[in-house]
Amino acid sequence: MVLPVPSYLKGLFVGASLCGALQAHSAAQAADTSVWQGIQKAGELRCGAAVAAPYVMRDAKTGEYSGYFVDLCRDFGEKVLKVKVSFVDTNWDNLVAGLQSSKWDLAMALNQTPERALAVAFTVPATDYQVSLLVNKDNPKVADVKEDIAALDKPEVTFAVMSGTAQDKAISSVIHNGKIMRLPGMDEARLAVMSKRADVLVDASDTNHLFALANPTWAREILPKPALAKQGVSFGVRRDISPADLEVLNIYLRQRRDTGDIQQLVDKASNQANAAN
Q: Which superfamily does 130-230 belong to?
């Protein structure tokens, strides 16, 4: 036999149901909160800026920022969100923490790593970081090598790399027959290749690209396959960003990358960095 529910209990059930519905509605509203709408309402997009050429550069005299991530941040803020863009000076140690504490809205030029992904979310990569190789195009020992790093792994080929770096670790894992010349700094490594004491310069692809642009008469870049220590370089955003908001910035980056615009910005920033040096 089913006993009737007392009227005072019915009231409790109704109250609990209403409370649950209100909580669910509040949670849904929080999830739907738009980061970009908040920035548009504030009228300003703040970009965290840790200096590393050619991604982010800062003129010591004027304080003005440049670099291809700076160009992207400024363009996205002004052309897409239609707000003022400001750059907040920081360093690499604090770039993620400042994003988490809302000191800025975007962190520029973050390499995608699993450890960072525990703290922030990433956009699609604007560019890719990897260890690359740079050779003298007139050197007969490496003249015919395109992308196959195994073709360089010969006793007569010497690789110059800065000792103890990620580049050192990466090249040491794949070179078994060639000689590895470990040097105390990148200037020494570059000089070794320029003076022909070494055949191959091993460095990050962005800085090797800078060096190649500065020495167009003899330098040739090689992006080996399989890739060495490849990572995406992205904007960092807060982990609680909505998928819809993240997709806005992702669409912007995909379009600019697919059309070659970002590569043009990279070359412009690289030439600017070389001119400054």
A: Periplasmic binding protein-like II (3.40.190.10)
Give the CATH number of domain 35-127+231-276; options: 3.30.530.20, 3.40.190.10, 3.40.50.300, 2.60.120.460: 3.40.190.10
Measured between alpha carbons, how far is residue 195 from residues 154, 170, 262 in Å? Answer: 20, 24, 33
Encoding tokens for residue 146? 């395109």
Decide if pLDDT at 269 tops 50.
yes
What was the pLDDT predicted at 165?
87
* Peptide bond just before 54 cis, omega within 30 deg: yes
pLDDT digits (tens, 9 = 90+) for 2-52: 445 555 444 544 444 444 544 444 444 444 579 999 999 999 999 999 998
Distance separating alpha carbons of residues 68 and 126, to the nearest angstrom: 10
Question: What is each CA distance from 147 to 38, 108, 127, 212, 223, in whole angstroms?
Answer: 46, 30, 19, 17, 6
